[in-house]
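Example record for the data management plan.
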Amino acid sequence: MPLPDPAPRRHLHTRSVTYRGFLRDDGLWDIEGEMSDVKAYGFERSDGTDMPAGTPIHGMRIRLTVDESMTIRAIWTAMDHTPFGECQQGVDPMQQMVGARLGPGWRQAIEKALGGVRGCTHLRELLFNMATAAYQTVFPWRERERRLSGVAPSQNTEPPYHLGRCIAWDYHGAVTARYYPQFAGWQPLRRVRPGPSPSST
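Corresponding structural encoding:
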């Protein structure tokens, strides 16, 4: 269903974000993200130079190489267009993400390594959704390969990470009941904090 027709308006800005996933010949995975910001009008930059319409203000790319455990083995960053030369200082800190895992705690890991003035806002934004792009790349391909080879789907005792994280994958919803009936109505175990030992009272 399309969006309703908009009110009369003027196009001013476009942010484009693209993610791509690749299976490498060595068995590792490359996840690439790129982002650009473009104005539909020309303007004068803060340094007095002209910025013609359609010229990228931001143009940034990241490539993550991850292994089967979704752990980052290598990272490359390119900042082709930035508003200030000093923005290039955001490239080197990205190496701190090597060894991080794309999974639970991903955003916290980014914030810990690159938050605030430790990193570039736009590179952080691009990194956030690279985990989703990685999962969309790796896990459907793994399932396809298992089906083609005749291997039965893995029977995990814990639900996949995406269950319980959106309206369609509600543990009590129809989609989970169809595709993961073993987890329909599933409730995570509550960890009980141990009380004080008798010797401490």
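Summary line stored alongside the record: The first helix runs from residue 106 to 114.
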